[in-house]
Known about the structure:
single chain, 250 residues, 4-stranded mixed beta sheet, 45% helix
Amino acid sequence: MKNRKRLICALLLALCGFMFAGAKVYKVxxxxxxxxxxxxxxxxxxxxxxxQSSVGAMDSMLFALEQQTGIQVVVAVLTGxxxxxxxxxxxxxxxxxxxxxxxxxxxxxxxxxxxxxxxQFATGYGLEGVMPDAICKRIxxxxxxxxxAKDDWNTGMLEGVRAVCGVxxxxxxxxxxxxxxxxxxxxxxxxxxxITVAIVMFAVWYNSRCPKCGKHDxxxxxxxxxxxxxxxxxxxxxYRCRNCGHTFTR
Length: 250
């Protein structure tokens, strides 16, 4: 009986080991950076998460981008990362592997970790003007996240990298216009609210004046319902001006 229990436990442990063997957790220094061995390759895909055709398409796009602009974009697609902090991991990955041109700091690391289900853009200081956080976030939300939610890593990365290239080479010139439109819409909304509040406040102020002497010193004396119709009450209110003594109803 004891031997049977030990055998079952051993089998369960072996099964667990088999299930989690493929979910490798990478340290920054363990990520194989293919661009250091081959300057025409830009996509690190050690676990085969992406198809070879997708990797080849992105390598071609990123090679053309660097030839045209001098900007180097490196993509790392991993099953898991040590610590689970995509922001920190992506920035250290770029810093420790010399992504971008020396003196210009114009590199970009795009990290996808499937275990953490996160995508992170880590830009060098030289790219912050053309690729601010707002643009990076917009690319992720518009082109990548929807596909990642379906575990379609290939389409998400291809669309995201294509959008990045469009922004960096200038072919996607109107990409940030939606931000300006949103700002204008917010300004219009705020102005509308301000005008509405101002009108209401003016109406309250105007109705608080005495129709005889014009002073804003009236007080309510009495109030009564004079009519009920369709669920609404018509109320008559009597006011007296404390300045001139004039009494009136509304």
